[in-house]
Specification:
By secondary structure, the chain is mainly beta. The protein is elongated, with a radius of gyration of 28 Å.
Length: 189
């Protein structure tokens, strides 16, 4: 009697005939009933799973959700769709260099983040943030920002555009304002 192998979602992955081993439905060798070399297939499967299929290229016949450790880039990836062998399509989970730097793709956090140092290369957005000892380095124009009730100290920048001439807040120190300025000692160019 053949074995019917079922995916996590309940769909049938494959049916394995007696005395055979299926090596085309997944990366693993799936032995059918009475397959004489089943011990070697099981042991090989366990070792490969422990290594997350560590190799320079994605494993053959991957299934959605399968992990793969890319030994070239030293990254752990996950297969986005069954049968995807294009390594560029796999999703990177994490990358750690010897210096302790970890790079993630897009990260959404619900809750709190605690860290001594966070570097954002692209975009940081939040409904609320509480930061201390913050260093902001910007080489782009900050446009259409909604900054309210903010105190920014020791800010060095070439250009701040609030998107609204009535944005509340205060800037202390020596600033050049293009447009209208109000307040004690305010001058505009």
């Amino acid at each position: 009697m053949s074995y019917t192998i079922v995916n996590s979602d309940g769909t049938v992955l494959t049916t394995i005939a007696d005395g055979t081993i299926n090596t085309t439905s997944t990366t693993l060798g799936l032995p059918g009933r009475s397959y004489s070399g089943y011990g070697q297939a099981f042991d090989t499967n366990f070792v490969q799973m422990l290594q997350n299929f560590a190799y320079t290229a994605p494993p053959a016949n991957p299934i959605q959700g399968q992990l793969w450790y890319n030994t070239t880039s030293q990254t752990l990836l996950v297969c986005p769709t069954t049968g995807e062998t294009n390594s560029a399509a796999w999703l990177t989970l994490a990358q750690s260099g010897s210096g302790g730097t970890t790079t993630f793709g897009n990260v959404t956090v619900t809750g709190n983040v605690s860290a001594n140092n966070i570097t954002s290369i692209n975009t940081v957005s939040a409904n609320a943030a509480s930061l201390s000892y913050l260093t902001v380095t910007v080489s782009e124009t900050i446009a259409n920002s909604n900054i309210s009730n903010a105190s920014i100290g020791n800010l060095t920048t070439a250009n701040i555009t609030s998107g609204n001439a009535n944005t509340a807040g205060s800037l202390t120190g020596i600033w050049t304002v293009n447009g209208n300025a109000t307040g004690a000692g305010a001058t505009a160019l």
